[in-house]
Amino acid sequence: MDRSLRRVPARSRNKQRGRRRVGGVVFGPMCLTAMLTMAFATVGRAEDTTAVSDHDLQAKIAYCQTCHGPSGQGFHGFYPIPRLAGQQPEYLKNQIQAFIERRRVNNIMFNVAHVLNPAMQTALIAHFNELNPKPIGGAAKDLVPEGKKIFEEGIPDAKIPPCASCHGPDAKGNGPFPRLAGQLHDYIFKKLTNWTKERGQDPTKPDTSAIMEPIAHGLNESQIKAVAAYLNYLE
Ligand code: HEC
Ligand code: HEC
Q1: pLDDT digits over 114-156, tens only?
Q2: Taking the model in full, what pTM does it have?
Q3: Which of 215, 220, 221, 230 is the pocket-test mutation for ligand 2 (most atoms within 8 Å of CB)?
Q4: Domains in the chain, start-ordered, CATH in brackets?
Q5: Mutation test residue for ligand 1: of 52, 66, 81, the one with most atoms within 8 Å of CB
Q6: What is the distance in angstroms between the CA of the first residue and the CA of the last residue of the chain?
Q7: Are 82 and 192 in contact (CB under 8 A)?
């Protein structure tokens, strides 16, 4: 207690003493606790924003760019590397945490993510959310009309709801629902065909991946290809 009190600025220490005299025996300790909590909450927030130097952030962004592309637009490599540009902050946060806790299985992104402190995560998320490059494309264009229909209407026979009902009419996402517009078709294909092997891998910690699981499971290969082609060109 003594050690932590020393970290409280003199002004608030005086205030606390003042309150203690006024508040008396009963209220004193409560006020003190409340104020200490407030004081440390403020210190914590201050540290959050100052912990990332611009130099460190730029270096980290450059590192992400080597795989995710210079504008976070994604990359068609040996394995598809997803677009991060314009992605929803809450979704990005959830995925970084899922990689770290190995609820989402991917060794590359585990290695990348587990060294990022919370302040760096916040700064990177804000950076990628603000980018808006054109989609890199590459999917078969003749599949687009069927994909659009699936996205907007779902597949009633297979009890698949419209993708738009969660991912938004323009596929821009919202909170924990990711943006899909402009996402690489081969990445979407890979994620939807492997869902149950890669996402939600800790049964003791159910997460947002469970919402998407029955939908990924219910789509067949040609339906996935079609909807992926549509999303791949969407700006
Ligand atoms: C060595 C290549 C590489 C680097 C460097 C890299 N990533 Fe990734 N990232 C990947 C791959 C591959 C995936 C796809 C994983 C999968 O298939 O599940 C991915 C996926 C992601 C996802 C999930 C996206 C989604 O739509 O679900 C996020 C978020 C992410 N990376 C953030 C970052 C950030 C932030 C950095 C920089 C700190 C970074 N990545 C650096 C290769 C990389
Ligand atoms: C009931 C709501 C809901 C519906 C309907 C829905 N999704 Fe999702 N979808 C989600 C959620 C939530 C996530 C994020 C899962 C996570 O956090 O792991 C997601 C994630 C995804 C992802 C992974 C994105 C990435 O970057 O890795 C793809 C691809 C996807 N959905 C495609 C679709 C398609 C295609 C449809 C329509 C056939 C659809 N979704 C319908 C809720 C929904």
Answers
A1: 999 999 999 999 999 999 999 999 999 999 999 999 999 999 9
A2: 0.85
A3: 215
A4: 2-50 (no CATH), 54-233 (1.10.760.10)
A5: 81
A6: 55
A7: no
